[in-house]
Amino acid sequence: MPLIEFTDKGLYCPQGGFYIDPWRPVDRAIITHAHSDHARAGSGAYLCHRLTVPLLEWRLGVAAEAVQGVEWGEPVFMNGVRVSLHPAGHIIGSSQVRVEYQGEVWVVSGDYKTEDDGISGAFEPIKCQVFVTESTFGLPIYDWKPQPVIFGNIQDWVVGNREQGKASVLIAYSLGKAQRLLSCLEPVTEKIYVHGAVWNIHQALVNAGVALPPVERVMPEMPRELFKGQVVIAPSSAEGSPWIRRFQPFAVGVCSGWMQVRGNVRRRNADAGFALSDHADWKGLLGAIEATGAEKVFVTHGFQATLARYLNERGIAAAEVKTAYGEDEEGGEPTDKEEKEAAHE
Amino acid sequence: MNNNYRGGMRLFAELVVLLGTSTKTNDKLDALATYFASAGDADKVWVIALFSGRKPKRTVNATQLQEWCREATGLPAWLFEECYHTVGDLAETIALLLPQNGDEAETGYSLADYLRQLVQIGKEEEAVKKELVLRCWRQMNKEERFVFNKLITGGFRIGISQKMIVNALGRSAGVDAAIIAHRITGDWDPATTTFSTLLSEEGGGGDLSKPYPFYLAYALEEEPAALGDPAEWQAEWKWDGIRGELICRGGQLFVWSRGEELMTEKFPEYQAWRELLPEGVVLDGEIIGLRAGPGAAESGEGANVVVGQDGNAGVTESDETVGLDFVPLPFAALQTRIGRKNVTKKNLQEVPVGFIAYDLLEYEGQDWRNRSLTERRAQLETIIGSVNHPLLQLSPVIRFRDWEQLAVIRQSSREVGSEGVMLKKKSSVYQVGRKRGDWWKWKIDPLVIDAVMVYAQKGHGRRSNLYTDYTFAVRGGDQLVTFTKAYSGLTDKELAEVDAFVRKNSLEKFGPVRTVKPELVFEIAFEGIAASARHKSGVALRFPRINRWRKDKTPAEIDTIEDLKRMLEVYGK
User: Which residue from A25, B170, B273, B559 puts its CA 20 to 30 A from B316's CA?
Assistant: First the structure.
């Protein structure tokens, strides 16, 4: 019996009797991070990183007593199976799940990036026999510039817009990318305005004790003149909506790994695209996989066929696995709840 | 000094990025105007050339580029292919795959420098070419590499029209846009033309072959009654060939296509008119396959299709059905001619190409574009009449009493081998580019057929990494017979929906193509149909596109190959 099975509800550990990121309700769910394709409502009990707890409560409406928060590296035993969480570097609270039983070690990556963004915790390579990796950006065309370079590009763009009297609206996922952008924007603006969806996440994190630069929520009664030349962070649901018109004149900059390819920038009708991603790029994936020393790699959501084939050719046994993760290609579009909020703003 | 030339390539690459992402015409104009104000002269000449459809001579091919990139990156061929299909653009794929150089790598080379080097290596050995390309790549950042690769592979489509280039130049040079448009048309070589000569009074050397920019019509979106008094309008058939300009100057005859391409060599039959046409004449018309002899213009029921050589009432027979003096051949026939490098005697016999003239732009060496259509037309009729050659025809004027009658006549467009009706105001001057108001095209409704999607492939450009290019099939007995591809017609939202379907319902994969469960039904619209030995279905469609998604239909309800064959019988002769 393998330590972890791939079932139609998610990744299942029969010995421990728990699932990892199940996409259907189960009794016990370990959650790698709070993005909607990994964290779903309806399960009986949840285990996740301490900083993911308030996000699950907020986003899924999970009762506090149903969620157990742990620190990175803190072991939890379930029917003899040793489970521990380790930083995945994807977003705040995001974790890899290490599962050990009778000397066999599996690691499930969830979503991860190998560059330290300063707020999500630095990705920790963990030795294991079997590694389950994501592959959202599993093609060599995805080769990210270092964060300081992209931050510089964004800052130049913001300043340039302000010189033309335009507001800068940055489209970013409200959980993860939005928080990551704050330290980029802080040096070039006095105030950072945010959409309600971003505001809610921000509050949940600040209340849980995460130190983040202050933001200001865009309110319906605010006069339009206030936003002249200002900086705004909003989720993609705000793009092209009536909500965004209040910033006129403005330029839209989309922050997403998909912006690496010109066609995607044009398709989004964005004025600018910044390939700032919370997922590992091709080199990041290969480096992380190699560092685990795994004998067997299962490749999930993304370019799984490509990455699996490449690994096999390089002598690393790999197979692709179908999951329900990353169904929205952005690897983190707003949840339904946020969409509704955006529509009402 | 030479400050302008430093980083010329970088400047150009930034312009391309800006033009690629700006969504507003004004932003693009600003970007272009700023560029023209700061770039070096030699670079500006090249930019005008590139954006007006002139290409540098190809000295390195796409296969070589691909190989050198694979060598430099050590990627297996299949992985390179995967990347290419996801990006949808070879030049960009290579730019993304090459190792990053960092943004600081300022090269100091100008666009013109790089182009000069590329042209110079034309006759060199492959090793020399490779060395140059690799060196250039090392000097460049990602954006520069992209435009550099684009220059090599050709096909620079950046989403700006020549009109925009012309307007931006007009703005920065302070010259009327129409004058600029004329100056930069024609046959000039960006490698040898200076910026000041190009924009000087004579333009690019004042050569004899210089054409006038075409006046293009918008599609009529409302009822023609909105145009007012029918007596003020001239109606003609809209021909399905290639828009062309015939220039007869200095005892020479030149042919330009709308794509600003000199096509003189392709149509040797035109040279017969060199002696027949008067000196200093420029005609606007349609390059089209033609057979002389009475045409098939049997009018629609009860409609009096009255065509004559004269737009004025009461000169020719009235209330009597008159045929054309020629038979236009379908566009597919013309394609067999323009596709080949050398035209053989057999080609000339099988598909004789004629010219249907409909306007006169220059007469006795004088620019006639500011005269009224009526005046130009009268002179045109005299000229064509005096040439009297079976392949040089006058586009007949359709006589009509009122808009209702014209609407009926328009229904018979396909029978005369046309794709609808052109409406031109009799008092109109010949303008530059696509303008509203005086000229309209009033096309007939397309032919349609319901088909099921069977293959899908990822698209290019703004559709990269999305399954947007589809192949469709109709029913043939108990099998599905593919008959066309179509790429356009769906909204972004629908494309996303179909893309999701393709990803979930792929039956098999060969190369970039996915075989898809035949489930989604679409109405395919097209302008014409012709027999084709190259296609499994035996037919080739003209301008196929998706008219709408028939979510109300199941694959059992699609049309059949017999339906297509019937259309071929009726419209595809």
Answer: B273
Report the first-to-last Cα separation within chain A, whole angstroms. 51
Q: Do B87 and A261 touch (CB under 8 A)?
A: yes
- Give per-residue pLDDT as tens, A15-49: 999 999 999 999 999 999 999 999 999 999 999 99
Q: Are residues B416 and B478 in the same domain?
A: no
pLDDT digits 0-9 by tens, B235-250: 999 998 999 999 998 8
In terms of domains, do B239 and B377 share one?
Answer: yes
Half-sphere exposure of A71 (CA within 13 A, CB side): 2
With 0-12 / 13-18 / 19 or more C-beta atoms within 10 angstroms meaning exposed / middle / buried, residue B475 is: buried
Residues A301-319 have pLDDT tens digits of 889 999 999 999 999 999 9
Structural domain of residue A322, as residue ranges?
5-141+279-332
- Same-domain check for residues B474 and B433: no
**Cα(B27)–Cα(B93) distance, rounded to whole angstroms?**
27
**Maximum C-alpha span of chain A:** 65
Going along A4-163, which residue ranges are E strands?
5-6, 11-13, 18-20, 28-30, 45-49, 67-70, 76-78, 81-87, 95-101, 104-108, 130-135
Which backbone phi and psi does A224 adopt, to 5 degrees? -60, -30
- Indicate the pLDDT class of residue A116, thresholds 50, 70 and 90: very high
User: HSE (CB half, 13 Å, CA atoms) of A329?
Assistant: 14
Contacts of A266 in chain B (CB under 8 A): 20-21, 159, 461-462
Residue A174 — left, alpha, or beta (φ > 0 → left; ψ -120 to 50 → alpha)?
alpha
* CA separation, residue A332 to residues A37, A276, A279, A328, B342 (Å): 7, 13, 11, 7, 56
C-beta neighbour count of B492 within 10 angstroms: 14
Q: What pLDDT is recorded for position B464?
A: 77
Same structural domain, B430 and B522? no
CB-based contact A115:A109 (threshold 8 Å): no
Model pLDDT, residue B567? 87
Does residue A344 surpass a pLDDT of 50? no
Q: What is the ipTM of this complex?
A: 0.91
Q: How many Å apart are CA B487 and CA B303, to the nearest integer?
A: 37
Give me the residues of B, 5-24, that contact A with CB < 8 A.
Answer: 20-23
Indicate yes or no: CB of A264 within 8 angstroms of CB of B21. no
For residues B243 and B319, state if they share a domain. Answer: yes
